[in-house]
Amino acid sequence: KIIDKCLKVHGTPMTAQVLDKIKAMGYKYSTKAAITVAVCDATIPPEKKDILANADAQVQEINEYFNNGFISNAERKSAVLSVWNQATTDVTVALTKGLDDYNPIYMMADSGARGSTNQIRQLAGMRGLIANTSGETIEIPIRANYREGLNILEYFISSRGARKGL
């Protein structure tokens, strides 16, 4: 709107000069400030343990229903995936609530420069459910995040799903 108004009031030559000055200011100030990211910026939410423990209890209850013949395997799998999806969402919410407005990771994602909530979740929350090479979701979630590090099983589950893209 501003450029359009400038064009209507001052014409093309003046608008071109204004745009050149805006561009020059952008180049100048883009080198004046920077953000660095450290491992300590990826803060793991304290609620994560409770969320995962609650999800484990729900999954155990679902498996007991299945073992007692109350639900089918398809119903069991659907319920388990639903529980883990909700747990992943809950960890994400806890993580985003706990990030300070001046946290470099939050600032990059919030500004749109780099990263997303999903990537922040994998960095400091939990990776969550992963699809296998055939596109089917694996029931075992990846509870760890990249800051904590993946155990061997979580690593192989992650790499197996990633192979599909190759």
TrEMBL record:
User: Which GO terms label this protein's molecular function in UniProt?
Assistant: DNA binding; DNA-directed RNA polymerase activity
**Where is the RNA polymerase Rpb1 domain positioned along the sequence?**
78-135
The UniProt entry, under InterPro entries, shows: RNA_pol_Rpb1_3_sf, RNA_pol_Rpb1_4, Rpb1_funnel_sf
- GO CC terms in record: DNA-directed RNA polymerase complex
Q: Which SUPFAM superfamilies match?
A: beta and beta-prime subunits of DNA dependent RNA-polymerase
Which keywords label this protein?
Answer: DNA-directed RNA polymerase, Nucleotidyltransferase, Transcription, Transferase
Task: Tell me the Pfam families matching this sequence.
Answer: RNA_pol_Rpb1_4
What Enzyme Commission number(s) appear in the record? Answer: 2.7.7.6
Q: What is this protein called?
A: DNA-directed RNA polymerase
